[in-house]
Design goal:
The complex is a heterodimer. By secondary structure, chain A is α/β, with parallel strands linked by helices. Chain A has one domain. Chain A contains eight helices and six strands; from the N terminus they run αββββαααααβαβα. The mean pLDDT of chain A is 80. Among the domains of chain B are: 104 residues, no CATH class; 39 residues, no CATH class. In chain B, 44% of the residues lie in helices and 14% in strands. Chain B has six helices and six strands. The termini of chain B are far apart. The chains are: A alpha/beta, B alpha/beta. Strand 2 of chain A pairs antiparallel with strand 1 of chain B.
């Protein structure tokens, strides 16, 4: 008896709808994800139970790195029409008698991450082309009473953008005296409401714990 | 999308038998897409830092004279954050030579101390939230926060916590203790500068600990 030869067909599945769906999702996630610019110093934030997300716009961030340097950042979020950053730098320049060229202002606007530069080094800092050159100037913003540049940054940021919120992002190992100093400077310039940037950690406390 | 339709040339020549339309192999493309999709999904999910809000009272200006608010000793609880994640606490007024209680940031540490003192308010808040969840009370999410705030404001039995920092405390401790306040639902807490009596108390406590730790070694 002759064998019945089954027609050999390679089992192809039509993947077109799957690919369609994938590309759709991929595009969605690519467009919605926001890349945070790299910080000049690694900051390991502490944990808390707070579930409030970090605001996107109208914020100024004070970054304290583990080697006790202070960095500052003004994020006007996605909104670049208002041009807060160059205006603030201009004000700072006026204060310290430094004239910034339009190119430098534009460069400062585009520089998205936080900076820890003394205003006197700002011109050289902006002229630097890569992170390695910049690193030399990142000594932290002076914040002592002799040369309180950090205070002026806070002051001018609040003048240019009155709706700004203060965010404090500190490394877990920053010593308390620096935290106290930063809080003092902020309070001197009438910032009494802060948001501390933390990572989420779930903690549950039950009523039974209280009954003990 | 992926099927390529063969054009048939009718003019001249022999008609070749159709060989079925050639499928493009999409597997590598799908693989890559899967990978990228997972990457972007995870980046989107994990890249959300949270913030914890604190409000400090306005600083008293130098030429302004304001009497410090009077608070009852019986309700005060002093917490001093020391080095190496240690937490020292004592109730009431500081007195020279008073021993400090030592604890830590674990669930059975300072949280138990605070919870013990804040039991009434904590129960009230918990009960309130339970009622909302089970539907006994019908309140909108945003007015829930306000209602809890009001509960905290009306509370007059819970402790008034004074948080002080020894000079070698870390930023982590600062965040942890404020976090602890919100976990336990303490209505009133304030950051205060450490005074010299307490500084001495912390130093004495630290010295006492190193001595007891060193004692078994010297005995051998």
């Amino acid at each position: 008896m002759p064998k019945i030869k089954m027609p050999t067909k390679s089992p192809h599945i039509d993947m077109t709808p799957m690919v369609d769906l994938f590309s759709l999702l991929l595009t969605f996630f690519m467009l919605t994800s926001v890349f945070t610019p790299q910080e000049p110093a690694p900051v390991d934030t502490p944990f808390s139970v707070s579930e409030k997300p970090k605001p996107d716009a109208n914020i100024m961030t004070v970054v304290m790195s583990s080697d006790n340097r202070v960095f500052f950042n003004v994020d006007n979020g996605q909104d670049t029409i208002l041009h807060f950053r160059p205006k603030i730098l201009q004000e700072m320049g006026k204060r310290y008698n430094i004239e910034f060229t339009p190119q430098e202002l534009r460069k400062f606007e585009k520089y998205g991450s936080s900076f820890g530069v003394s205003i006197h080094d700002m011109k050289k800092f902006l002229a630097a082309t890569d992170t390695k050159d910049r690193e030399v100037f990142e000594k932290g913003i002076p914040h002592d009473s002799v040369d309180n540049q950090f205070g002026y940054w806070v002051l001018y940021t609040r003048q240019i953008n009155p709706a700004v919120q203060a965010l404090i992002k500190g490394d877990s190992n920053v010593e308390y005296p620096l935290v106290k100093k930063v809080l003092d400077v902020l309070q001197d310039y009438n910032v009494n409401r802060f948001s501390l940037v933390t990572n989420l950690e779930a903690v549950k406390v039950e009523l039974t714990d209280a009954k003990k | 999308m992926a099927e390529i339709i063969q054009e048939e040339k009718g003019k001249g020549g022999k008609k070749r038998p159709k060989k079925g339309n050639p499928h493009m192999d999409m597997t590598p493309m799908v693989d890559l897409m899967c990978l990228l999709l997972t990457f972007f999904m995870l980046v989107g999910a994990f890249n959300k830092p949270k913030v914890m809000e604190i409000v400090l009272p306005e600083k008293i200006k130098k030429n302004e004279k304001v009497d410090p608010p009077k608070i009852a000793d019986s309700r005060t609880l002093n917490i001093i954050l020391g080095p190496n994640d240690k937490v020292f606490w004592y109730p009431g007024k500081p007195e020279a030579g008073m021993p400090l209680q030592v604890t830590d940031f674990s669930a059975t540490g300072i949280r138990e101390v605070l919870l013990d003192r804040n039991r009434a308010l904590f129960k009230k808040i918990e009960q309130f939230q339970q009622d909302v969840i089970t539907g006994k009370l019908n309140i909108k999410q945003d007015s829930l926060a306000n209602a809890i705030k009001q509960l905290k404001k009306d509370d007059d039995t819970g402790p008034i916590v004074l948080i002080k920092f020894y000079k070698t405390a870390k930023y982590k401790n600062f965040v942890d203790i404020i976090d602890e306040m919100s976990i336990v639902g303490i209505a009133r807490y304030i950051l205060v500068d450490i005074n010299w009596i307490e500084q001495g108390m912390v130093e004495a406590a630290l010295k006492g600990q190193t001595q007891t730790a060193a004692a078994p070694l010297t005995q051998k």
